[in-house]
């Protein structure tokens, strides 16, 4: 959760977090801690509906983030 006190249409409210109001972000990180990609949760249209039906929300987000990694030759 990235704290945000301003107005934003994708702002989330999670009571259990230390900063309950903000933007929900999902990170793809390397084992050494390097951030490879990230995604801001924007609601139902964050990932394609077809992927969400096949894999669920978590699996669809992982599929989307892993798809952005360049393939090695």
From TrEMBL:
The record ties this protein, via InterPro entries, to:
PGBD
Where the record annotates domain PiggyBac transposable element-derived protein, the positions are 1-72
> What name does this protein carry?
DDE domain transposase
What species is this protein from?
Trichonephila clavata (Joro spider)
